[in-house]
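In the current project phase, the collection of sequences with tokenised folds has grown. A representative record is quoted in full directly below:
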Amino acid sequence: MQITFQEIKEEDFGAFRQDVKDIFSIAVIREFGNPERGEVIPDEDIDEALFHPQAEVYYILADGEKIGGVTLRNDKESHRNSVDLFYIYPDCHGRGLGTQVWQAIEQLYPNTAVWELVTPYFEKRNIHFYLNKCGFRIVEFFCKYHKDSSRHSGGLDYQDEYFRFEKQMNI
């Protein structure tokens, strides 16, 4: 399959935001049930990624069909880039598309020295994907004993406990 990226303009951020909310909710609801308060991922968290000055936002296409989306931060000075939001539609899981997408992202950003991302502690599928398929390593675990001062607290355990991953690139 040919993986390509379609840049998303600000007028389409609403649809992207809804995709993120719908897809990120699946794992939380599966693990914890419906949250009694708040949203699984608040609009302000999504908007922080979408409107960051270094943000590059794309729909992901496989052979021209939309299969997901990604928000990346491209730091052209430090070459330390990050994945803020990344999702593949559930009906596309289990077909190797995530790995193909990650390889395409690496090709799209060949000057990256380090990739960074975070994922919740309970998301075994994501943890497996980043560690075993993409070559990331866990470099930090945030929890009540080790808070992340760069992020605001969501107030729910699944929002405040997560791993930070890095992947060193050979450039």
The chain has a mean pLDDT of 90. The first strand starts at residue 3 and ends at 7.
